[in-house]
Amino acid sequence: MVSSSQVAEHVRSVHAIISRPQRPSGHELVARSWLRCFHELALDPAAEDAPPPLAPQAWRERGDRLGDVMDSAVPEMQTLHRQLDDPNSALVLADAEGVIVSIVRHPGFAREASLRGLVEGARWSEDVQGTNGIGTVLAERHSLVISREEHFFARHTDMVCAGAPIYDGVGEVAAILAACSLSPGGARALRALVERSARVIEHRAFRARHATDYIIRFHAHAGRVLTAVDGLLALTPEGEVIEANHTAFELLSPDGEALLGREVTEFFGQSLPELLSRTFRAGFHPLTLSMPQHQTWYLLAQQPARNRAQSGARGDSGSAAQALAELDLGDLRMAGNVHSAMRILDRDIPLLIAGETGTGKEVFARAFHASSQRARGPFVAINCASLPEALIESELFGYKQGAFTGANRDGRRGKVLQADGGTLFLDEIGDMPLQLQARLLRVLEERKVTPLGGENAVPVDLQLVCATHRDLRAMVRDGSFREDLYYRLRGMEVTLPPLRERTDRRALIERCLNEEGAGRHPPVRLGQAAMQVLDRYRWPGNIRQLRYVLRTLVAMCDGGEITLRDMPAELMDAPEPMPAPPVAALPAADSHADVPPPSPTSHLNPLQSAERDALLAELRRHRWNIAGLARELGVSRNTVYRKMKRLDIDTDTQAGDGY
Fold it and tell me: What is the pLDDT of residues 232-260, one digit of tens each?
């Protein structure tokens, strides 16, 4: 806590500043806030007490009124809390009046947080807590960090507080996300992380709120479309703007002119049906719209969830599979995975996702769920490898009151029942104990669940998605995984390629950078040399490792460009990547000898040579039927021809294969 001598020194500093207004610590926003606190709010910087928090019912009602913002904030706060890994910090969500409605903190910090007023129901507006990372964000409508002596009240001067606004769909601040820490240093990184999470929450809440409306996603920069920083417009079927996110207001209404109620044609020169049609024809990749005054927009139009549910047997599957389509950035194998998953949407076929740790198996599963008719239902994930064996059964199937010693007195619904009407995602299914595999198989066959200690089976309707980094076929052979369950789970199996083998790696790096740098001003971009370092690194931790590296680079970047100076040593010292092993070509039906694949041409780099070998293998398998290969991959014939031309695959190559 702050000592009496520190209080006295801080009070003298405050009076020195307000008597001759200037920037304290070079921060203009803080200067304005101090003047407000002293002259308009008549606060005493030495004051020690704050009003008591609201009663639980009162602050819970405030949280309920936040609706989708609250629902979107809770999981993101948990993720950010784990990322910060700071035992002396608290993450808080406050409403538009500065009242804390949710808090995440380390158990050991609970008492300290309570003494400082970091509890549910406490009001942190400027009139109550002076200059701080919640109330001052509300007053300034701008993300900021209030670091130690920048607080108005002396009692807060040992704390750093970073806050960012979360906007509603009409341009007003709906809530504040803030991180308050007693740990030294890291203020700049703390602000960047909080800003990013605030944008993610705002984005998720907007899309959840408008799941049954037409959505336009756009930006002036191509790489920011389909990220947490793109502009969002919710539209009526007639193309009238219902709501817009903060980015859309900044891009389309920088001077504060009216935005809501206007026609989408005014902004993009085309009607909503035209934009939807063009998006569909473009394979759900962003359109490029050149407007008068040399303005260029990159845009994607989406149908509402109800229209996706009505798309039936995938005759227009592109509109129904938007979330899946967003995962295709150009890699041939990922395009095939996306296409395969699209074909089984809403057909009650289990999906098994294989791949190394960190390749994005849960991201793929969530996209599969979001693209289906179950998108408005729950997505329930459980990691079979992270739970003690004794708890897996109760977690999956639930239990009745008194089922075992230590059980919750009210019982518990298991994950299977929680997923009713939605999707159950069993991650690391290969780590499920054998005895539970038999019970899971029965549940899948009967579509009924009997909780532990219960007598009556409860019907359940769900989509099953499983993931594993293990070789389940080998486990079946050695008896550690049930063969009947394996074939029940793999209605469709996709294998996600490791990051080091993906040919769309640069596009993926750019997308991840835009997502991790959401809300950063100025935006952060990768210098060419830095991109080369990231591109050649082997990425043993795959996409998960890439995200952590980019998150740190964004947080520590001083300017708008990440350069070689910012690169971690382990990336700079990485060896050149080895080319991916060539994919063996399947022999033709009338072939009597193995034909080795042609050597890559001299000007192709190792990664391009590997891509060439993979594409050649697929062409041979289809006996050089370009149309058939394009249909299987879910791309146009022109796309395949462009890849062939880029990789120097022509008719001479085909002749060499004997076709």
Answer: 999 998 899 999 999 999 999 888 788 99
Give the rounded distance of the alpha carbon of 18 from its chain centre.
43
Give the Cα separation of 503 and 333 in Å (integer).
9
pLDDT digit string, tens, across residues 161-204: 999 999 999 999 999 999 999 887 777 778 888 998 999 899 98
Burial of 145 (0-12, 13-18, 19+ CB in 10 A): buried
Which residue would you say has higher pLDDT here, 152 or 575? 152
The structure tokens listed for 123 are 């009001």
Residues 6+ apart with CB under 8 A from 165: 137, 138, 141, 142, 143, 173, 175, 176, 198, 246
Q: What is the pLDDT of residues 133-167, one digit of tens each?
A: 999 999 999 899 998 888 988 888 889 999 999 99
581-623 tens-digit pLDDT:
433 333 333 333 333 333 444 456 655 666 677 788 777 777 7
- Provide the β-strand partners of residue 105: 90
User: In the sheet that 463-468 helps form, which strands lie side by side, from edge to edge?
Assistant: 379-383, 423-427, 463-468, 351-354, 492-495
Whole-number pLDDT of residue 294: 73
Q: Rounded to whole angstroms, how far apart are CA atoms 172 and 166?
A: 9
At 568, phi and psi to the nearest 5? -65, 150
- Provide the pLDDT for residue 133: 93
Both structure tokens of 140: 């300034």
Can you give the pTM of this predicted structure?
0.55
Q: How far apart are CA 292 and CA 290, in angstroms?
A: 7
As a dihedral over the C-alpha atoms of residue 539, residue 192, residue 79, residue 86, rounded to 10 degrees, the angle is 100
**What kind and span of H or E run contains 650?**
none
Distance CA 549, CA 123 (A): 36
Burial group, residue 475, by CB count within 10 angstroms (0-12, 13-18, 19+):
middle
Going by C-beta distance under 8 Å and a sequence separation of 6 or more, which residues neighbour residue 493? 351, 352, 353, 354
The residue whose two tokens read 């486990």 is: 475
Report how far residue 519's alpha carbon sits from residue 164's, in angstroms, rounded to the nearest whole number.
9
Gyration radius (Cα) of the chain, Å: 28
Burial zone of 436 (CB within 10 Å; 0-12 exposed, 13-18 middle, 19+ buried): middle
Angstrom distance (rounded) from CA 49 to CA 45? 11
Q: To 10 degrees, the CA torsion angle through 121, 126, 129, 130?
A: 170
> How buried is 466 (Cβ within 10 angstroms: 0-12 exposed, 13-18 middle, 19+ buried)?
buried
First to last CA, the chain: 81
Q: In this structure, is the dihedral angle defined by the CA atoms of residues 286, 290, 292 and 293, taken in order, positive or negative?
A: positive
Which are the contacts of 524, defined by CB distance < 8 A and separation ≥ 6?
Answer: 513, 517, 553, 554, 557, 560, 561, 562
CB burial of residue 313 (10 Å; 0-12, 13-18, 19+): exposed
Residue with more model confidence, 279 or 645? 279
- C-alpha angle 169/171/175, rounded to 5°? 80
